[in-house]
Amino acid sequence: MPLNISDPIYEMLSHARGYAAGDTLVQSISLCIGFWFLDAKTIRKLSAGTVRQQDFEDAICLCLERRSRQAEAAFRGFSQVRLGEHGFQDLFFHWVKFSGDKNRLLRLIERMIYPFLTRASWPYIAVPAWLERLAVELLPAGEGTFYSGASGVCGPAFEIARQRREWGIPLRVVTCEEHPGLFHLSVLLASMYGFEFEQYNTDCLRDGKAPVKADFSIMFPPLRGGEPVRISDSLTCGSDWAYAYHQLCALNENGAGVCRISNGALFNAKNRRFREYLLKRNVVDAVIALPKSSLPFTPSAPSTSLVVFRRGRKKDDAVQMAELPESSQLRAKGSPLRTLAGAGKSVLPIVWENSREVPPSELDASNLSPQRYLSWPRQSDGPPLPCAGEVAEGGGLSRKAVQMKDVAQIYRGINVAAFSRSGEGVEVLRLSDVQEGRIRMDGVARYELPDRTKQERYRIHKGDILISCKGKAIKLCVVSEKESPLLSHDFLGIRPDPAKANPWYLFYFLQSPAGQQAIQQIQMGSSITMIRAADLERLPLHYIPLAQQTQYAAELREANILLEEQLAAVNASRERAYERFYQKIGLEDTL
Length: 591
Known about the structure:
20 helices, 9-stranded mixed β-sheet, alpha/beta, 4-stranded antiparallel β-sheet
């Protein structure tokens, strides 16, 4: 009879007497990976008699030989721990109880690797899941080649590969890891997830060279750093920056990368000349100071920051300086960062809320710490936006310029990253569901959202204007009476006050050159541009009386509808002309 175990990992560790915790975890991971690959018939056969470790490994390698020679070699390389016949049998019968549920096995493997094995054996590579997600979100969206030169167990590689696969964007992933155990484990995990990674088990830091030129890269190197790299006869990259320099060399002429470095590397004297080198080449796009608690298993480790590199920057492009809350704020109950990170949601909005764009002329190579630049008075905010005038007769406002918040309510969308998709779930409007100014409901995804009482705050209403809040390209649309899904965090919603603003007037204004310029002024970030709800509320509008808004917007809308009908008729006429041509030359069967 299977034991009623609430947490099989703690149960296993509590009964593993006489063996090192790391060895017990490695053997348990090997067993669970084996059960994941083996079929039920083979598992029953192994369970029927005396269980020998060699028989189990032979069965796994026979299975993997048919799937992937690389995965077979990785399993032999990783499964080197020997706990003795009795110890192996105990672990085998402990984990075989879960072999019938592949999804649960995968979750158990992930948990045994992080945090248990990471804490016991490799604390210097520990990276929380929320920090991996943040690093991926800092990269531009698009296809290309992703390179991880300090891959650990491939966390960022899995994160970006999953993201691009969900978006339907092709991505080549190349990983490099010099630690044999981590390398073998990353190969096995990639095979289990169904990802085709190109694996390089070499010393990636030698001479700063990389096995690939990449469009994107993320590196969370060991906290001990690398070996110094000589760049020229007069310049050496210190150990603190070694992985960052390697990443920079791996990027192509327009590539973007994210690398974690110690905070001391941003201001210590020994690395000043290298920082001058980075500023001269204009490759630093952002610096984000991380809370100390982002290194959960190494309390004595140095504080760290994320440095975002982007090659091909323009000369005057600003550098984003940001600081996430300190560890005490991260642990505080109810803090926004802890709430988002714990729920598996994006913390990127908090980054931009605690950031400032700094012109390159203001940067000082002696100190690139975000704290220094965030403490300076903001010089780029400009004069305050015009305030609303007095309400005039008929609900209009007397001034020509008002802020968006004076005539409309701004609301945010829901972040569905932590929720699973379900055919019976709630419809959530994403970025791809708005095309050419219209909502396309045929492909809207459904998500299983637990709390239905809080969903109404995200539901779109007839007359709302939707504006995308991520990326340089802005999507706009007006909600018709037919749509009522929830809004995703890809958008901000604008709900006009019917006594002050006409939805179509606001829509056409935001589409105008003046409206587009106003939107560009509130966009934040270089690698990933965003619009904050607070900034959209302050966006200046050219205001006219409500009656004129309604009249002029109706006239423009009517003209657009007529032009679309005429264009459709012209396209149909052109298609008929081509059909007649094909028929005359005998190609009608190809139509």
